[in-house]
Amino acid sequence: MPGYDRAELTAELNVVPSPEAERSPREQVEAAKRTATDSGLAHEAGPEKTVLAGGRSEVLDAMRQVIEASLDAGVRAVEVKVEVEGEAERFGR
User: 39-81, pLDDT tens digit by residue?
Assistant: First the structure.
């Protein structure tokens, strides 16, 4: 069973790069992924998506760091979806 199936909280972050930023769109996305990976909570990643899963405080702290790194890299927006274990459909409860 994947770790995020047992996580207290999950946060899905979708990075929306800005074509007008100083850094390339790829570099903007990579900044977010690098920060998410460094948190140790990243369990999934798509082209522009990252999922953080773990305890409430850890996920919220990591989410803030990923958003800050994204904005610092020049992204236009970061879309966030946060789910609590008992309410998340993917947990099968």
Answer: 999 876 678 899 999 999 999 999 999 999 999 999 999 999 9
The residue among 64, 80, 84, 60 whose CA lies nearest residue 16 is 80
Strands of the sheet containing 42-45, edge to edge, are: 42-45, 49-54, 9-16, 77-84
Distance CA 23, CA 91 (A): 37
Please tell me the total number of residues recorded for the chain in this structure: 93
Please name each of the domains of the chain with its CATH number: 3-86 (3.30.70.930)
Kindly report the pTM of this predicted structure: 0.82
